[in-house]
């Protein structure tokens, strides 16, 4: 079957393309921006990519068009599909029908940590010899691909609350029908599609409604929004993590790089790993609970976590130049920025820490998170905010509210000059964006040489 994917370079759609190819389909696709790392992953799989949405790419007509959620009415390729009556489907629906049907699905949902936690869970099952399939919105370094079918019933999926397509406004995760579900946390996000937090809570409850009574729901005790979701009705056993939960930790190092895991008051072993931050400790607990549900004993899960390598672009160390360390991080929400900087601060002690932040997500561009930004950067020694041309609010006013030295720059050259003038051996520089940031990471490393 020839499947053509519109919006193929998104993390979800690109991963789906890999699975379709693995199932034996002839897969092609297009995107407005064909760029690495997804483009390189797809080209390596022999998937032909077209830049842009000229309807000519749909002639001769494919057997099926999968339409990504970034596509909207008025897009020339979308209009052509509708006018010609070509068969089309959303990505999550295709996945549900052709990959997830009949599998034991382990879904990881939440505002933060989905990619890292699903990577941890896939790795723990792999380490236990369970060869799971997975679809992850990033590239886990233990696997070096973002998706695979796997040859056992188990399938780990990053379960996103974003909508499915212009013709299906339900959250993607409603299609997945998991048996094991991690609900990591829940805050207001995606201001472009959700009016408020209760609207997101309702979508999470739609997910809870699909989990069988022989399944398992895992969530932390510390999230009031998730508590409200469960109180709307839950027909599935629940296990909780964190303070007062069945799964708890004793921190053995302040930065979260060593901790003892407790289940129902009994010590299960010590995780000693390369990760830092309380958020990753919480991700690990949820992972161990989910893995235990499919038969991985905690001690085996703990051994796997100690060999876990992080996901690309999640506090990934990308360069060390003249004693200055540069990291690439995907954080694009105040909570994620704060927890990431806190974890690094606890690891590096008093060493100088410069944060460079691009407010690029739809919610950021709409200004939904601007009130939380000044407080999110308190662990940095200084912050450089990048103001893209299309930002619809005053980033300078936000920078002025920061308690640490903050400047706004509207050019990559300006950012590089600032870092060059401030950084000295021993400085740590974290670049935070959910996009490519104009290749700043490489340009900065080169300039520091």
Architecture blueprint of SSEs:
Layout: E1 2-6, H1 11-22, E2 26-31, H2 38-44, E3 48-51, E4 64-67, H3 76-84, E5 88-90, H4 91-100, E6 104-109, H5 114-127, E7 133-135, E8 147-148, E9 154-158, E10 163-165, E11 168-171, E12 180-183, H6 197-209, E13 216-220, H7 224-231, E14 238-241, E15 247-251, E16 258-263, E17 266-272, H8 278-293, H9 298-305, E18 316-321, E19 324-329, H10 334-348, E20 353-357, H11 362-365, H12 373-376, E21 382-386, H13 395-400, E22 406-409, H14 412-422, E23 428-432, H15 440-448
Parallel strand pairs: 1-2, 1-4, 2-3, 4-5, 6-9, 6-12, 7-9, 12-13, 13-14, 19-23, 20-21, 20-23, 21-22
Antiparallel strand pairs: 7-8, 10-11, 15-16, 16-17, 18-19
Provide a brief overview of the structure.
The protein has 449 residues and is α/β, with parallel strands linked by helices.
